[in-house]
Design a protein that fits this description.
195 residues; alpha+beta; 2 domains; three-stranded antiparallel sheet; two-stranded antiparallel sheet; 7 helices; 42% helix; extended; disordered C terminus
């Protein structure tokens, strides 16, 4: 569904196209990724399959969103040399287990055998950014959806949002923009004067 607008002012001639698309992740996909019972099952499966493994912990929905966003972001970097990882990767298994295999395959991930004979997950391989690749566009939209899910989870659970940068005081950037670094400043209640 889309809307098209054109400015009627002859001197302006601005065109705006607004397109609504279905989300990459359905409600069922989000539930599969973030359901607490599913996450507990994945955690217990890692413990059962590799009882001697240290540092295994129960993943949260925030962990799942963050890890999937990292994998997808890495897949979009054309110069990224790391294009695969062991299928038994501890952090991956905590977050996704084997329950999410079909979802990951639908997103462009692929299972493969590594050089050492160990099962691997290959990151999606979209074409370059110059190409209008549907996979690249889907993955870019997915990153935005995962950011939204992260924001929503953090707001709903009163958690700090690790993907939102902390804001810095703009005075340093303002002074640099005005080429006024090193100038003495005089602060009043209503304004900042650079001298």
């Amino acid at each position: 569904m889309g809307y098209h607008f054109g400015c009627s002012n002859f001197g302006c001639q601005a065109l705006v196209h607004v397109v609504f698309e279905a989300p990459v992740l359905s409600k069922e996909d989000v539930l599969l990724l973030s359901d607490n019972q599913s996450l507990t099952r994945r955690y217990e499966a890692v413990l059962d399959n590799t009882p001697d493994r240290e540092g295994v912990r129960l993943a949260t929905p925030l962990d799942v969103y963050t890890r999937l966003k990292r994998y997808v972001s890495d897949s979009l970097l054309e110069g990224n040399a790391r294009r695969s990882f062991p299928r038994r990767n501890k952090r991956f298994m905590e977050a996704f287990g084997t329950e999410c295999d079909s979802l990951l395959c639908r997103l462009g991930f692929a299972r493969a055998e590594g050089d050492d004979g160990e099962d691997q997950w290959k990151l999606p391989s979209p074409r370059s950014a110059d190409d209008s690749d549907p996979l690249r566009l889907t993955l870019e939209r997915l990153i935005l959806e995962l950011q939204y899910l992260t924001d929503d989870y953090c707001a709903s659970n009163a958690k700090a949002n690790p993907s939102r940068p902390s804001y810095r005081d703009a005075k340093v950037d303002l002074a640099r923009t005005l080429s006024a670094q090193g100038c003495t400043t005089c602060s009043t209640e209503s304004s900042l004067e650079l001298r």
